[in-house]
Design brief:
21 helices
C-alpha cells in the first residue's frame, strides 16, 4: 500500500493495484525462478539489496522529522517523558516474557536432543567475523552501549543511518524547540513538517518497488539454498515459527484485547507490510510506511514518533524468543547439561544482549555469539549449527519484531488516551476490504 492509498477516500480499486497481491505474485515468481534457474536467481539479490538501500536512505531523516514534530506539537514535555517511560517499561516486560517463552519451549520440545554434535569437530572458520564482532560487543558493556547512543555529531548519526542516535538527537532537538516556543519555534516546526511530508511522498514512490525487492530476495534464497535447505534443522525452524505465531496470537493478542482491539484485524490491516518484511527478512523495509499507517489508524503522531524508533532497538520480541531458544538448542545439540543456575544465567545475560541488536551487521548471529561467549558451560562454537538457517529464521524474526513494535505503539497510545478509538475501529473494520 502506498501512502497515497492509505489516505485516499475509501473505494474499490482494480485488484492489480493491491500491493499485497503484487507482493504475493512476486513471492510465487521468486520461488519458480529460484527452482528453474538457481544460478541466475542468485544474482537477483541486487533487486532486494537495492530496495532495502532505497528505504534505508530515508529512514533516518523521517525518524528525525516525525519525532521533532511530534514532541514540538505536544507542547507538554511531561507527557512526552511519561510516554517514553511507559514505553521502556512495556518493552522490558514484554521482551522478558519473550525470552522466558523461548527458554521454556526449548526445554519442553528439546529440538537439539539426539543430534549428538561433537563441538571439537565443528568448523570454527565458519563463524568468520561474527565471533570478532561478538567479542567486541561483549567487552563493550552497558556503559559503552549507553555512550554509543550519543552520536559523535548529529550529521554523523544521519549519515550512518543509526536510528537510535538519530532518535536521541531528535528528542533533544524537539524538546528544545518546545521550550523555545513562539514564532521562531513555529517557523522551524512548519519547515520540519513540510520536509516530513515530502519524505513520505518519496517513501510512497519507493514502496511501489517493493514487489521487485521481494522477487529478488525470494529468488536469491531459493536459488542459493534450495527449497529443501531447511531439512537439516527443520525442527528448530518449525518450533521457532510456531513460537512466534503463538507469541503474536496469545501474548500480543491478549495485550491488544486488554486495550479493546482485535489482533487479527490489526494483522489484516498490516498485511502488505508483513508480506514485504517476511520476504526481505528486514523490518527496515517498511519502517516509514508503518509509521504512516499507525497515524492513519488514529495513533497520535508524537506516540508513533517515540515508540516505533525506540522499539526497533529495545523491543525485539521475536529476536528475544530466538536468542534463548537457540542458546538452549546449541546446548542440547552438543550434549551440554544445563543446571538451573545455567538457565537463569542464560535468561539474565539475554536480558542485556537482546537490547540494541538492530543496526548491528548480522545482528542476530553477532548477539547470539556474544551471549554464548558469556555463558562458559555452552560451547560458543555451536553457533555454527544455526548459521545455515539464519536467513529463514530471520524472516519470522523480522515479522515478529515488527508486529511487536506496532502493538506496543497502539497499546501505549490507548493507555495515554492518544488513540482515536472510533477511527481505529472504523479503519480496522474496513481493513479486509480497503484497497492496498
Amino acid at each position: 500500500m502506498t501512502v497515497d492509498a492509505i489516505t485516499a477516500p475509501a473505494g474499490r480499486k482494480p485488484l492489480i493495484y493491491s500491493l499485497f497481491l503484487q507482493v504475493l505474485l512476486a513471492l510465487a515468481l521468486g520461488v519458480v525462478l529460484g527452482m528453474a534457474a538457481p544460478g541466475f536467481s542468485a544474482q537477483l539479490k541486487v533487486l532486494s539489496d537495492g530496495f532495502l538501500k532505497l528505504i534505508s536512505m530515508i529512514v533516518a531523516p523521517i525518524v528525525f522529522c516525525v519525532v521533532v514534530n511530534g514532541i514540538a506539537g505536544v507542547g507538554d514535555l511531561r507527557k512526552v517523558g511519561r510516554v517514553g517511560v511507559k514505553a521502556l517499561i512495556y518493552f522490558e516486560v514484554v521482551t522478558t516474557v519473550a525470552l522466558a517463552l523461548g527458554l521454556l519451549l526449548a526445554l519442553l520440545a528439546g529440538p537439539g536432543h539426539g543430534m549428538n554434535v561433537d563441538a571439537s569437530k565443528l568448523d570454527a572458520g565458519a563463524m568468520g567475523s561474527y565471533a570478532d564482532n561478538a567479542h567486541k560487543l561483549q567487552g563493550a558493556g552497558v556503559g559503552s552501549f549507553i555512550l554509543n547512543i550519543i552520536p559523535t555529531t548529529s550529521i554523523d548519526a544521519l549519515a550512518r543511518n543509526d536510528v537510535l542516535q538519530v532518535l536521541f538527537f531528535a528528542i533533544l532537538f524537539g524538546t528544545s524547540l518546545a521550550l523555545v516556543g513562539g514564532e521562531k519555534a513555529e517557523r522551524i516546526s512548519s519547515f520540519v513538517d513540510a520536509v516530513a511530508t515530502i519524505l513520505f511522498k518519496t517513501m510512497s514512490l519507493i514502496v511501489r518497488l517493493a514487489p521487485l525487492g521481494v522477487l529478488g530476495a525470494v529468488a536469491y534464497t531459493v536459488g542459493k539454498y534450495g527449497v529443501g535447505s531447511l531439512q537439516q534443522l527443520v525442527s528448530l525452524v518449525a518450533l521457532y515459527y510456531a513460537a512466534v505465531a503463538a507469541f503474536v496470537i496469545v501474548v500480543l493478542g491478549g495485550i491488544m484485547a486488554a486495550a479493546g482491539m482485535n489482533i487479527f484485524r490489526f494483522l489484516a490491516y498490516l498485511r502488505a507490510e508483513l508480506a514485504i518484511v517476511l520476504a526481505t527478512a528486514s523490518s527496515d523495509a517498511v519502517l516509514p510506511q508503518v509509521m504512516r499507517k499507525l497515524e492513519h489508524l488514529g495513533v497520535r503522531k508524537s506516540v508513533v514518533g517515540l515508540v516505533i524508533p525506540t522499539g526497533y532497538s529495545f523491543n525485539l520480541d521475536a529476536f528475544s524468543i530466538y536468542l534463548t531458544l537457540a542458546v538452549v538448542f546449541i546446548a542440547q545439540a552438543t550434549n551440554t547439561p544445563l543446571s538451573l543456575g545455567d538457565l537463569l544465567l542464560v535468561l539474565g545475560v539475554s536480558l542485556l544482549t537482546s537490547k540494541g541488536a538492530h543496526g548491528v551487521p548480522g545482528s542476530a548471529i553477532v548477539i547470539l555469539a556474544a551471549t554464548l561467549n558469556t555463558i562458559p558451560s555452552i560451547p560458543a562454537i555451536g553457533l555454527v549449527l544455526v548459521l545455515s538457517v539464519d536467513w529463514f529464521i530471520g524472516m519470522a524474526r523480522a515479522v515478529g519484531n515488527l508486529v511487536g513494535n506496532c502493538v506496543a505503539t497502539v497499546v501505549i497510545a490507548a493507555w495515554e488516551g492518544d488513540l482515536d478509538r472510533p477511527r481505529a475501529a472504523k479503519v480496522l473494520g474496513e481493513s479486509g476490504d480497503m484497497a492496498d
